[in-house]
Amino acid sequence: DSLRYPTENYMTWAVLAVICFIISICSLAQYSVNNSIVSAVMSIIVILVTFIELGYCLKLTKSQINGPEVTVKKMDELPEVIKNEFIDGIKLTVVAIVYMIVPAIIFAILAFLTGAWSKISVFVGYFTNAGINAVMSNPEAVVNAIPNAVIVDFASSAMFLTILGVILMIVFTLLLEIATAKLAETGSITDAINFKVVVEKI
């Protein structure tokens, strides 16, 4: 269904293409124009249109879960549709932020409890204490001055944090996908960030 849906809904591609085109043009203008006011306006437009794009993507997910929605038949209905998609885009952004903050907190707590942060800090401390001039002019001497035990602790801690970060990223990316579907189904941020409800959907 995931592979077939895009090829059967050309209007979806057309709408997304228009939205992406608007974002690209505004982003280009933002960095091409020296006028700070114009750049600020372009930045605001990019943010607003990005929320609409996210809301439209959420609408597509919802259409796969609950069936296609009634299309806009009158132009006076368009502002209401855009407003709803903008609100949905904000909801999806809030959910995504939650699913980024939680693994970050877990990562920080485990890094602190296992002592990985302190071991890395000790290693980095040798470079900061040596000073930027010594590090730039003779980095090999600075590294040679570090005890082997500190280097081993740093390497093991860095490897542990890397593996932990990858695992958390994979797990919470999958949970975010499920949470996005839950948000599309119910329209409720509370349900989407309810980890118990989301995990039950696996």
Total number of helices: 10
The helix-strand sequence is: HHHHHHHHHH
Nearest-angstrom radius of gyration?
24 Å
Helix content: over 70%
Which secondary-structure class do the elements indicate?
A: mainly alpha
What proportion of the residues form beta strands (DSSP E)? under 5%
Instruction: Give the terminus-to-terminus CA distance.
Output: 19 Å
Structure explained in plain terms:
- With 202 residues, this protein is mainly α.
- The protein is 85% helix and 0% strand.
- It is built from ten helices and no strands.
- The chain has helices at residues 4-8, 10-32, 36-66, 78-113, 116-130, 132-137, 139-144, 148-186, 189-192, 195-200.
- The protein is flat.
Descriptive terms for the model:
mainly alpha; 85% helix
Please summarize what this structure is.
This protein is mostly helical and 202 residues long. The protein is 85% helix and 0% strand. It starts with a helix and ends with a helix.
Lay out the secondary structure.
Blueprint: H1 4-8, H2 10-32, H3 36-66, H4 78-113, H5 116-130, H6 132-137, H7 139-144, H8 148-186, H9 189-192, H10 195-200
Helix pairs in contact: 2-3, 3-4, 3-8, 4-8, 5-8
